[in-house]
Amino acid sequence: MINIIAAVAKNRVIGNDGHIPWHIPEDMAYFKNLTTGNIIIMGRKTYEEIGKPLSNRFHIIISHTKIFSGDNLLTVNSLGQAITFAKNFASNQEIFLCGGQAVYTQGLQYAKRIYLTEINKNYQGNIFFPEFDSQKFKLIKQIQGKTSGIKFCIYDKI
To answer: 144 - beta bridge partners?
Structure first.
């Protein structure tokens, strides 16, 4: 299954000049729990912000300007290529689209599920999570986080 996973501020901000504008350990643990043992797809800038491959995950990086290589790491030119490779590579693994904005925007057409950590606070930023059609995705589960002002929401494509 192809999933989108993101944390988003109340004003839809997901980043500011290439950085996540918050540090929420509970959300980081949620991300790790869901993505470990699976395939993660992200854009070059998102990967560069992380700075290294995350353990126990296969990474597919989308870039037109750089090539990243190493154990559990592949570079491709487009989201379509990334998804094709991931589907052929993964027999029983989930595929997670992990950002940035362009990957999320393009990924909405492929995603069957969205794991969205909603942060009830506005942040300054210049990178945003795209609006998605509530006629196409239905909220199926919502869990209040232990951290004040966050909730973990799961939306499935209808």
So the answer is: 151
